Amino acid sequence: MKNTKKILLFNVLIYLTLSSLTLSCSSEKNQKISTGNVIISGKVEESENFSQVISLNYPGLYSNLQEFSTAIIDTNGYFRFEYQTMFPQDVMLRYENGFTRLFLKPQDSVFVTLNAREYHSTTNPDFEISGTKSSTSKNIHNYYYYRKLLNTFSLDYSNLSVNEFLNQLSHRINKEDSLLTEFIKEYNPSDEFIQWASKTITYEYANYLIDVKYYYKDNGVNIDNELFDKKLFPVNDDDAIITLWYHYHLKHYSNKYFQQDSMVINRIKDNQLADANRIVLQNIVKNEEPGISRDLMCYQILNNVAIESLQDFIQLYDELPQYIDNKELRNLLNQRKQQLESDKTLTISTLDSYRMKSDVKFSDDFFSKLGEKFKDSIIYIDIWATWCGPCKAEIPHLINLHNTYKNKPVAFVNICISSNKKDWEQAVKELNLQGENYFFNKEHSNLLKGKLNTFTGIPHYLLIDKSGNIIDDDAPRPSSDTIIKEKLNKLLDNS
């Protein structure tokens, strides 16, 4: 990779003043990560004739990079989100067809004012914000308008070598840096924004590596060692944790440890999950520089194991000090372990008074019992998981669908599978999930998947008639809008 150009950010870095950021002490072995709550409250003006649901993408403590939450807008137009995070990062507030990026840190509290008509007609409308250091959020908003001065970036991978591709990325990043310099001169943004923007530019383009990787992989060529050039896109850039793109880059980079080691591949095939991940963690510690970035790679991997298998996670947890230096990350994994160990129920759980018995014969009884409970109603079932981004993206549409049919004989049932029970309870509250909510443990989740011939993944939707019979085991999603409404209306008219 000798011909690869090194990214030059000198014209940007001279503006950086990082002493005010708790994260900017890269020379320390243990970066300071401080977990705390963030509050986003606000008002949607003129919301009467528009959606009553607003959503938020934010960095989760245990999720695979991002969490998703929804809030109901009250009759006066007000809404509120509260979540926990461990470092400053940009979040995405979505309403109607528009979105807004906000930059928030642990302990921040802001108030945002949106206009429903503008968010319906524009993808990146203006907004008002007040609260803790809210100027950075406005800087980001203005910057994305300014960024439109650049042409859309695209590459034809089939005509480029790896070196040529990386050189193209380097050239594009330099163009973006030059534009950022002009923006800084014109707008005089906060130091916090400058650091976020410079890191976002670099690592947003780092994520193009994945497209090229799989293009070559589909053609039988493994180029990970060439492609993931750490001089061009470092994996020890601890100050970059303020941008979500860097976390994606760390995830994509660490995946090579799973895909290139035959011992790891064989252990995964043999379902030896703890052994496979142990080898990966040991290799990361051996080959990567100490620091918060390396700790975060290991943290992501251990969280993924926790989702897959409590037993394997506990085995690796006992070795935690070998893999993670940062005390706050170790504490978070300790909390995760306690949550998982306290959730060993073998019953189907529900959040209301209707409770399934643990000895229910799933294949015979569950759907018929739903039919008994919701007698004379059509039942629309959403099968989802707490860690599933596409599942959560459907929730605002599901809530709107529920509101459309709230005075009609249509029941809405949400079944959470392959998830942690505490996460489910929290998600039901945060997402404002309407209707009946059920949690299936691992055993019942597998039974459900086995029963449904059309089940290939989540989210998955079912329609059940008034007798408890499944009449559509691959029903349209809530976001299909008119398609699912036409189907429900037809069932109502024929019943």
Short account of what is shown:
With 495 residues, the chain is an alpha+beta fold. It is built from 21 helices and 14 strands. The protein folds into three domains: 36-134, Immunoglobulin-like (Sandwich); 157-341, no CATH class; 349-494, Glutaredoxin (3-Layer(aba) Sandwich).
Write the layout of secondary structure elements.
Elements: H1 10-13, E1 36-45, E2 53-58, E3 67-72, E4 78-85, E5 89-95, E6 98-104, E7 109-115, H2 116-121, E8 128-131, H3 135-146, H4 162-187, H5 191-206, H6 208-218, H7 224-227, H8 244-254, H9 256-259, H10 262-269, H11 273-287, H12 292-308, H13 310-317, H14 320-323, H15 327-341, E9 349-350, H16 362-373, E10 378-384, H17 389-393, H18 395-404, E11 410-416, H19 421-430, E12 436-439, H20 442-451, E13 460-464, E14 470-472, H21 482-494
Parallel strand pairs: 1-7, 10-11, 11-12
Antiparallel strand pairs: 1-4, 2-3, 2-5, 5-6, 7-8, 9-12, 10-13, 13-14
Helix pairs in contact: 4-5, 5-8, 8-12, 10-11, 11-12, 11-13, 12-13, 12-15, 13-15
Q: Could you list some keywords that capture this structure?
A:
four-stranded mixed sheet; 3 domains; Glutaredoxin; 14 strands; Immunoglobulin-like; six-stranded mixed sheet; disordered N terminus; 495 residues
Dominant shape: globular
Q: Please report which band the strand proportion falls in: under 5%, 5-15%, 15-25%, 25-35%, 35-45% or over 45%.
A: 15-25%
Low-pLDDT windows of residues: 1-31, 345-364
Write down the overall mean pLDDT.
83
Number of E-state strands: 14
Biggest beta sheet attributes:
6 strands, mixed
Structural class category: alpha+beta
Rg measurement, Å: 24 Å
Helix content: 40-55%
Total number of helices: 21
Physical arrangement of strands within the biggest beta sheet? 9-12-11-10-13-14
End-to-end distance: 68 Å
Q: What count of domains describes the coordinates? A: 3
